[in-house]
Amino acid sequence: MFGMDIRSDTRSSVLRGQDGRPRLSARIALAWLGFFGCVLLIGGTVQAAAARLPGVISHSAAGLGVTASALGLVFVMRRHADRRPWSGVGLTLNRAVVPHLVFGMVVATTLATVAAAVVVQVGLADWAWSAEATKTLAEQRLASTIITIAVSVLLVQGLPEELVFRGYIFRNLGATLPLWAVVAVSSLLFGSMHVFSSGGATTLAERAWYAVAMSGFGLMLAACRTVSGTLWLGIGFHGGFDACNGQFFVVHHGAFIPAWLIILVVLIAGAAGMLAVRQWFVPLDWRAVPGDACSGAVKS
Q1: Do 62 and 46 form a contact (C-beta atoms < 8 A)?
Q2: CA distances from 159 to 58, 142, 162, 163, 289 (A)
Q3: What digits encode the pLDDT tens for the residues 53-66?
């Protein structure tokens, strides 16, 4: 799938292609594992070093460490492994950045609110502050709590995860796979990462289902990347959804899987709606290989 074409050439090997670069599968594996290094090694080390400082400061320092190391990871991978320009990642700086961020947050807030309302309405949860939000509020003031949440959803999760998964990995998949496969595979890779995070899951089945639901989250984020051509819409959606989802309702015991099933359906519907709007105004050729632009191929 990832270009594992082994030919009888002295320049090629299991891990290296004929062009001298690491094979696509190796580059994606390095990026996938490298992200964990950014979070666990860099972020964890910085937070431990700043543990004696106020919580909001240590958390902010860790967030900056994760984002900075993710930027460094992708820069090194693009320059030395891909041998391609940084521009293909999609982290552009122009006048559209703020509108994309804001629109992504608005869409995320809307979908998170709809999902929460349905979950509560069908009797799977109650409106209430989550245990994590309640603990943070108890330990810090409201302003510090807001800053802590903002740092977490943007610097620890939103920006670095989008940079690695919808920036680097999405771009590299788009060099050889058709657009539909790029969206699908990048979503599954993103979901697989969440096998190692619980999201409130307590059993093996709940952890597995959480990873499936996060693949749906990845699908929505891949839709943001596809329709906008940059990362900022996805960063806004990622941060907004993480900030809202699960903060204002408490799921009943034993209702984790059905609650996340509803959230998954809402995310898939949101992705389908966003792609349908793009398809209506500027059609995409889903069978075409996006190439270096990796933002969708327009039908002629």
Answers
A1: yes
A2: 18, 24, 5, 6, 26
A3: 888 888 889 999 99
Give the pLDDT of residue 246.
82
HEC assignment per residue over 44-80: HHHHHHCCCCCHHHHHHHHHHHHHHHHHHHHHHHHHH
- Which of 125, 64, 144, 164 has its CA nearest to residue 263? 125
What does the pLDDT read at residue 292?
57
Q: Residue 271 has what pLDDT?
A: 98
Counting every residue, how long is the chain? 300
pLDDT score of 8: 42
Amino acid at 186: S
Domain positions in the chain are 90-281
If residue 125 lies in a helix (H) or strand (E), which one and from where to where?
A: strand 125-127
Q: Could you tell me which of 154, 199, 159, 143 has the C-alpha nearest to residue 60?
A: 154
pLDDT digits (tens, 9 = 90+) for 85-121: 998 899 999 999 999 999 999 999 999 999 999 999 9
Rounded Cα–Cα distance for residues 49 and 68 (Å): 16
- Provide the 8-state DSSP code for 190: H
Q: Which of 214, 188, 210, 180 has the alpha carbon at shortest distance from 198?
A: 210
**C-alpha–C-alpha distance, residues 164 and 70, integer Å:** 7
pTM, to two decimals: 0.90
Residue with tokens 């409201």: 142
Residue 226 above 90 pLDDT? Answer: yes
Neighbours of 96 (CB within 10 A): 15
Give me 70's structure tokens. 């993710």
